């Protein structure tokens, strides 16, 4: 199975179940349920095409390149505390909150937001910016704390002896 399919039986089963669920959703909604003529950007078809085209062809290569750029090369000194996750987490969280709240953030549809929340759209952009700044600040604080703790952490006795300039027996 692995030689023919390229993955294990469990992966094939999960893929089959995923396609069955997607087919059941399309069957339940009906083809006309996939398109909303009043608000085209709320259509399931638009979100599906956006996910397939925008994410897979544009965003994935971009953030893969950014992720590769954050890898340490052999010429750089290796850090004790990797910084990659401290960049990834706030960027991903900010992108997801932008995706979820973009109608309010970009001032697209005031009536729907007021009907859904009882609030107008004016504070959305400011609140999203504050939330993004708070996530970045928290990530920086955790990174700095990890760097400080990595610098304070004592080495084991065996490691100190191996790296001592005169060798292990000179410390007696």
Automatic annotation (TrEMBL):
Keywords of the record: Membrane, Transmembrane, Transmembrane helix
Top-rank lineage group of the source organism: Bacteria
Chain segments annotated as transmembrane: 7-29, 44-66, 87-108, 128-149
Protein name in the entry: Lipoprotein
Origin species: Rhodococcoides kroppenstedtii
């Amino acid at each position: 199975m692995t030689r023919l399919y390229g993955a294990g039986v469990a992966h094939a089963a999960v893929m089959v179940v995923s396609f069955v669920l997607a087919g059941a959703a399309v069957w339940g909604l009906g083809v006309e349920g996939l398109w909303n003529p009043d608000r085209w950007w709320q259509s399931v078809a638009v979100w599906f095409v956006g996910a397939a085209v925008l994410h897979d062809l544009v965003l994935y290569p971009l953030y893969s390149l950014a992720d590769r750029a954050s890898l340490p090369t052999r010429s750089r000194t290796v850090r004790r505390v990797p910084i990659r996750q401290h960049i990834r987490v706030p960027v991903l969280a900010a992108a997801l909150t932008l995706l979820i709240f973009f109608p309010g953030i970009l001032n697209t549809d005031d009536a729907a937001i007021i009907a859904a929340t009882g609030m107008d759209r004016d504070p959305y952009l400011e609140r999203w910016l504050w939330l993004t700044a708070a996530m970045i600040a928290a990530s920086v604080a955790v990174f700095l704390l990890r760097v400080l703790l990595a610098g304070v952490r004592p080495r084991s006795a065996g490691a100190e002896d191996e790296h001592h300039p005169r060798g292990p027996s000179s410390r007696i």
